[in-house]
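Before anything else, study the sequence and fold tokens given here and see whether the fold suits the sequence. Record follows:
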Amino acid sequence: MNALVEKLQAGVDLNPSDIRYVVTFLLAEGAPAAEKAALLTALHQKGESTEEIAGFVDQLIDRAVDPMIDMAKLPGPMIDVCGTGGSSLDLFNVSTTIMFILAAGGAVVVKHGNRSVTSCCGSADVIEALGIRLEWTPQELNECVQRLGFGFVFARFYHPAFRALAEMRAQLARSGTRTIFNLLGPLLNPARPGRQLIGVYAARLTAVFAEVLRQLGRERAWVVHGTAENGAGMDNISTSGATTLAELKEGRVSPAVLDCRWLGINAGTLAEVRGGNATDNAKTLTGVLSGEVTGAKRDLAVVNAAGGFVVAGLAQDLGAGITLAREQIDSGRALEKLRAFQDYDKKTR
């Protein structure tokens, strides 16, 4: 392991054989946490290449529980919507909110998510606060997706090998040290969705992630990084500043810049879209879907859902996606999806 650390410190990328060995070492229960941390720190300081990220994803998904979702049997295009976190802005749970809007508009959302690591409230935390259980077996998940058009894939349940990393990751998070695992979350959906909307915490990562998704064989994706009015970055499409975008389409990656203000969206402020704890964010999510929460939070949900509709192939462009997203909220269909999820969970417990 010392030789691999030295290799990384010399600026040399890991090859596929190295990655297989590293992943096996990291997931070994008895391997020293200090050695795992040293290896991951060296990799991050070198800078993770697209090949290394894709290699880690392949190795880790191979070790995950397979939800066995057959895309050919789904009633619509399957998509995941997820962010890396790491922006330290503590926004409300945007990607979890839009899963219900997208499902109402015809997409099949198989959302991968976890408890919070870098924010006040992760997607799993808010799902739990909505009264919905987190652990669904593959059979239960499949039935839920078939009946409702969406489901939630709890990362800790579908990646049991990650237990060996929990202590070390918590220590690194407390010290503010980032590793490749701060990048991998949105890429590790074991359902292997063909379409993804991913938010990243740094603009430079948009092209990196899009290239990784290309290597992983994804059909279409948007990778976005938004800018707030004070210059802070967010792992969402922004309503208060420009958004850097890398699009994967037909096997090619293309860069672009979005500004939702060009489409008549009011410029919200960061203060207006901040979230709170799981209970607070569950209320915000429900309020957006019911139409009771308006203004900047609704707008942020709408534009991100719009991006999801474009990626899913249900909207031609962001403007059409905005119209479609608003329709799902105003008609009550988005809220109906949330209520259906809550009711279905109660019936199947």
